[in-house]
Write a structure and sequence with these properties.
CATH class: Alpha Beta
Strand order of the largest sheet: 1-2-3-4-5-7-6
Distance between the termini: 29 Å
Number of domains: 1
CATH superfamily: Gcn5-related N-acetyltransferase (GNAT)
CATH topology: Aminopeptidase
Largest sheet: 7 strands, mixed
Shape: globular
CATH architecture: 3-Layer(aba) Sandwich
Structural class: alpha+beta
Number of strands: 7
């Protein structure tokens, strides 16, 4: 059984390992090895993960069973839109998918931003499994974009939002 808790600096390596496994399983078929490598190096390097663990106005969670990290989630207030939190990461290790780990992480994340009225997430267009997951959580598509994860990425994404309960 996994328990959701706040990530600590000591979790950084395990989170990185989880992200490598998850990204390879999820994105290799869409983007190929070179793009996945660049995504991992830029978005999920050890220094990037470490910086997120201690960021203000953000929450970085892990699902921990005492032996391993089975999932991770990271969200922060979105400076470009008032009362909006951005879900930057919600990943579950392939061996733990379908067990409710992602749902449990999200359930905690959506309570971490009392001033937020909306949670947003960018999802790769090709990642229909993730789109379906977010729809089950109450997200709806509000837009599409061509630069998922940042300017110049060239990776198309669906932008989804969920109204948060006040």
């Amino acid at each position: 059984m996994f328990f959701v808790r706040t990530a600590m600096e000591g979790d950084v390596k395990a989170v990185r390992d989880l992200l490598v496994d998850t990204f390879e399983a999820t994105y290799l078929p869409f983007y190929g090895a070179e793009t996945v490598r660049k995504m991992l190096e830029g978005w999920h390097s050890l220094p990037a993960i470490k910086a997120r663990v201690s960021k203000k106005d953000a929450e970085f969670l892990v699902a921990d069973d005492g032996k391993r990290i089975g999932g991770t989630g990271y969200a922060a207030m979105y400076p470009k839109m008032a009362k909006t939190a951005m879900l930057h990461q919600l990943y579950v290790h392939p061996s733990c998918q379908g067990e409710g780990v992602g749902r449990d992480i999200f359930a905690e994340l959506e309570t971490c931003f009392p001033d937020a009225e909306i949670m947003r997430v960018e999802v790769a267009v090709e990642n229909v499994r993730a789109i379906s997951f977010y729809e089950r959580l109450g997200f709806v598509e509000v837009d599409r974009m061509v630069d998922c994860g940042g300017p110049g990425s060239g990776l198309p994404a669906v932008l989804m939002e969920k109204r948060l309960e006040l």
